[in-house]
Write a structure and sequence with these properties.
By secondary structure, the protein is of the alpha/beta class. It has a single domain, classed as Alkaline Phosphatase, subunit A (3-Layer(aba) Sandwich), CATH 3.40.720. It has 15 helices and 18 strands. The strands form four sheets. It has a ten-stranded mixed sheet with strand order 7-6-5-4-8-1-9-10-2-11. A four-stranded antiparallel sheet has the order 15-16-17-18, covered by helices on one side. A two-stranded parallel sheet has the order 3-12. A hairpin with a 2-residue loop joins strand 6 and strand 7. Helix 1 packs across helix 12 and helix 5 packs parallel to helix 8. The longest helix has 34 residues. It is globular, with a radius of gyration of 24 Å. The relative contact order is 0.17.
Length: 618
């Protein structure tokens, strides 16, 4: 008989007892007579969290590859994440949606991203007037913050939001799709997909504010600690929920030289050696199978030894800055952890760390960008050689407040070790497989354990609800709620061998698509000739429309071939046909149709920009 920890037993009992929603408006239970003497007063009781419910923190990093952090075999130091994982659990088969807004909407709602209308982004240039793509999360798809708020928690969010439609992101609102309209009582961060780390487009609660010149990660950490301190002073026994989502490590890669210079010379051997080192360490740590093989370098990426000395020096510096940026982010998370320990709350806090909302970013192009606004595709009158010379001459600016930096594609593949491809390529594990850390000393046995159950970002909401003893509500503020699509992971906390309960999952970003079911995965790479949006060199060309029916589907048994090296499509055509049929069913169920790819988005952006210019010039 399996041993059950006391906390898990208590929370399971609490969960079983709460069969109905707790946040519906109760009927008046007093008596109203003609006079006060004939009447009986009544007030609804304030909602309290279940007895013993812990504080909850969700930490979501941005654009971090599977093999970047030391916690999962990488060579970039992340001592705080290491400590949380060593005293908690590492989930190595956890997945995201493949790009930021879809992942964040799925995470916060426990539902697939098209189901909550976030098939792309909330930005005007990329949202579209279809149920799966309009970028507006319906009120019937409530967030974890709304649920916890209505069940006795205080709720705070700091950092990146990324889910507010552009036209709503002004001080005039409306604010129902700002964080404060989605269940967070306080918010401090930015509403868009990216921002300058020293000059952020900063908002607090429902208004934009002026940044103070310090790094954004420092500012959001200060604010998070302040929220916790004030809340614990006012209501010591009341739990809180903190959503901590730094801009890091999304571009621009910006961090003080104190952090980046700590990595001086450590990447001079290049991305090929980096991949081999990380792969060996992942095997040693048990992160990947002992018999795993490293996929070959992607065809787009040159061998490190083929680069000129100037290119090697430039590219190594890009990676030094990125590594310093990630270590600095770990340090800022550590400030929150140390504060919780200082007020005796760390052992009473359930912490989830999702190490990236997608795989490493390919958006730095083949050559990297010192100033992203001035990248090679936007410099049509210079050659690649001249562009590289420009970057080499500006090497000292990389990572500084004067830059808008992103590293070259070779480092994206390296930090995605042991997988193929990168962010946006939702067909591949390199875009969608991100590590997860679960920390809660009171309720997790087998500290430092590894969990390999298949899981997805939509699973964190039901996991949190089950562990805290809160039922999924039938209504939120009297609005009927759709069902949760994720699967709680609590079953795996105490049992590393428990069969996975999340058995089927689709993926779709800009035409790249996949379907996972019971250890098998079918996938189609829609645009293998386009690395990223910067490959559109000519904005005036006609849209390039690929026939989706001609996309080549591949088939993998990821239980046996976790990093997708052997395509079995020809060997098992019936299994491929079965999975393709399943994808079509999911596409109809979750509003994935109509397919929209990056080419459509790019030309929609050009059209909208031209239309706006025409309107302004009238």
């Amino acid at each position: 008989m399996k041993k059950t920890t006391p906390v898990l037993f208590i929370t399971a009992m609490l969960f079983a007892r709460q069969l109905t929603a707790q946040n519906s408006t109760p009927a008046y239970q007093g008596t109203v007579g003609k006079t006060l003497a004939e009447s009986k007063e009544w007030w609804p009781q304030p909602q309290h969290a279940p007895a013993g419910a812990p504080n909850v923190i969700w930490i979501l990093l941005d654009d971090v590859g599977f093999g970047a952090a030391s916690t999962f075999g990488g060579v970039i130091h992340t001592p705080i994440f290491d400590s949380l994982a060593n005293n908690g659990l590492r989930y190595t088969n956890f997945h995201t949606a493949g790009i930021c807004a879809p992942t964040r909407s799925a995470l916060l709602t426990g539902r697939n991203h098209h189901s909550v209308h976030m098939g792309g982004f909330a930005h005007a240039f990329s949202s579209a007037g279809f149920p799966g793509y309009d970028g507006r999360i319906p009120t019937s798809k409530g967030t974890i913050a709304e649920i916890l708020r209505d069940n006795g928690y205080n709720t705070f969010a700091v950092g990146k939001w990324g889910l507010t439609p552009d036209e709503d992101a002004t001080d005039a609102g409306p604010f129902d799709r700002w964080p404060t309209g989605k269940g967070f009582e306080h918010f401090f961060g930015f509403l868009g997909s990216e921002t300058d780390q020293y000059k952020p487009d900063l908002a607090e609660d429902n208004t934009h504010v002026t940044p103070d010149g310090r790094h954004l990660s420092e500012q959001i950490t200060d604010k998070a600690i302040s929220y916790i301190a004030k809340q614990k002073k006012a209501a010591p026994g009341k739990p809180f929920f903190l959503y901590y989502a730094p801009g890091a490590t999304h571009a621009p890669h910006q961090v003080s030289k104190e952090w980046s210079d700590a990595y001086k010379g450590q990447f001079d051997e290049g991305w090929d050696v980096f991949r081999e080192k990380v792969f060996a360490q992942q095997k040693q740590q048990g992160i990947i199978p002992k018999d795993a093989q490293l996929p070959p370098r992607n065809e787009y990426i040159p061998a490190w030894k083929s680069l000129t000395p100037g290119e090697q020096k430039l590219y190594a510096r890009f990676m030094e800055v990125y590594a310093g940026y990630l270590t600095y982010t770990d340090y800022q998370v550590g400030r929150v952890v140390h504060y919780l320990k200082s007020i005796n709350q760390l052992d009473n806090t359930l912490i989830f760390v999702v190490v990236g909302d997608n795989g490493a970013s390919k958006e730095g192009t083949l050559y990297g960008t010192v100033n992203g606004k001035n990248s090679l595709p936007n410099n049509k009158n210079i050659t690649t050689k001249q562009y590289l010379e420009l970057n080499e001459n500006g090497i000292e600016k990389i990572g500084t407040p004067e830059s808008f930096t992103n590293y070259p594609l070779g480092w994206a593949q390296a930090t995605n070790t042991p997988f193929k491809y990168w962010k946006q390529d939702a067909n591949a594990e390199g875009a969608t497989r991100n590590p997860l850390i679960v920390f809660y000393p009171k309720g997790i046995t087998g500290k430092g354990g590894i969990r390999t159950q298949y899981s997805h970002v939509i699973d964190l909401l039901p996991t949190t609800l089950e562990f805290t003893g809160i039922a999924q509500p039938a209504t939120i503020r009297n609005i009927a709620q759709d069902s949760i699509q994720g699967t709680s992971l609590v079953y795996s906390f105490a049992d590393a061998q428990a069969p996975a309960r999340h058995t089927e999952q689709y993926y779709y970003i800009f035409g790249a698509r996949a379907i996972y079911k019971d250890g098998w995965k079918a996938e189609a790479f829609h645009r293998p000739d386009i690395i990223d949006e910067n490959d559109f060199k000519d904005a005036t060309r006609k849209p390039y429309t690929r026939d989706y029916d001609k996309d080549v589907w591949e088939l993998y048994n990821v239980n046996e071939d976790f990093n997708e090296r052997t395509d079995l499509a020809q060997k098992y055509p019936e299994k491929l046909a079965e999975l393709k049929s399943q994808f079509d069913a999911d596409a109809r169920r979750y509003n994935i149709y109509p397919f929209i790819d990056w080419d459509d988005v790019f030309h929609r952006r050009i059209h909208n920009t031209n239309a706006q210019s025409t309107t302004l010039n009238k």
